[in-house]
Design goal:
By secondary structure, this protein is α+β, with helices and mostly antiparallel strands. Helix content is 32%, strand content 20%. The protein is built from ten helices and nine strands.
């Protein structure tokens, strides 16, 4: 399981040949059990996974003593868990009308920043617990994404785990703004390439020479697929290439971007394991 982030060391360095470093690291750690050794972030990071904290400490000591790590200017660190993100839906646009109507007066970045900050303040006005945690306990409540629709706005907030627990467990997945109650749910943003459909990178970083259709797995762009609305033609490229026989058996039941895809579900679970939910943080 590549998501055991409690026991992972990360190596990275500008311009470093991490594929070459990986071979040297494998030799250096030959007597220490590893759960995985792999390149990540399109070859910009080298991840080393260990089965326990003790093994990770031994690995960290061995790599700190490995002179090439320092000579090549590599950054050696322990993987850290992420703060939770939440999706908030159905925020009425009339609450934001004074900003939306002045959109043309701002750059796109300034416009989004104004929306984010206004929403953050308005949510805290209605929730004394969140307000107290942010202002007195230095906890995190930050709007990181805003999507303004025709009548309603959807947003993503990054929060300290204690605020996530408050909203998801204690507040029955509701948050209040103005005279409106908005639904809150956990948000796990899986990084998926919509050129090759694989996970772990985006289209702009894709090294595959030819596209793979999200719907039918043929070698054409997703936009040009004639079977977008024909579910009988769907074929998930990730499941069809999986080593898991049950995934392969289900590949004709969904497309590569479906939330029903078992590979997608697995990726979301891995991301969930990388998220810090400890309620006291």
């Amino acid at each position: 399981d590549h998501a055991e982030t409690d026991h992972v060391i990360v190596l990275k360095g500008e311009g470093a040949n991490l594929a070459e470093i990986m071979k040297a690291v494998e030799k250096k750690l030959v007597n220490i059990p590893l759960t995985f050794l792999k390149l990540s972030d399109n070859g910009r990071k080298l991840l080393v996974g260990f089965p326990s904290t003790d093994m990770k400490e031994k690995g960290l000591k061995a790599l700190n003593e490995y002179i090439d790590v320092h000579e090549r200017g590599l950054d050696l660190s322990e993987a850290k868990k992420m703060y939770p993100k939440l999706t908030v839906t159905n925020v009425p646009n009339y609450l934001l009308s004074h900003i939306i109507q002045d959109k043309g007066k701002f750059s796109l970045t300034d416009y989004r920043d104004k929306l984010k900050e206004y929403l953050r303040i308005k949510f805290m006005e209605k929730d004394e617990f969140i307000k107290n945690q942010v202002q007195n306990e230095n906890k995190l409540f930050s709007v990181v994404f805003v999507n303004v629709g025709k009548d309603y706005t959807t947003l993503a907030v990054k929060v300290s785990p204690i605020i996530r627990t408050h909203l998801i467990n204690n507040h029955n997945q509701w948050i209040y703004i103005g005279n409106t109650r908005c639904k809150v749910s956990d948000r796990f943003n899986v990084k998926q390439c919509f050129k090759c459909q694989k996970f772990g990178h985006m289209s702009m970083d894709c090294s595959e020479p030819h596209p793979i259709c999200m719907y039918c797995s043929a070698s054409h762009s997703t936009n040009s697929c004639p079977d977008k609305k024909n579910s009988a033609a769907y074929r998930c490229s990730n499941c069809s290439k999986s080593r898991n026989s049950s995934f392969v058996a289900s590949c004709n039941m969904h497309h590569s971007g479906s939330d029903l895809c078992p590979v997608m579900v697995s990726e979301k679970r891995n991301l969930e394991k990388k998220t810090e939910f400890s309620k006291n943080i």
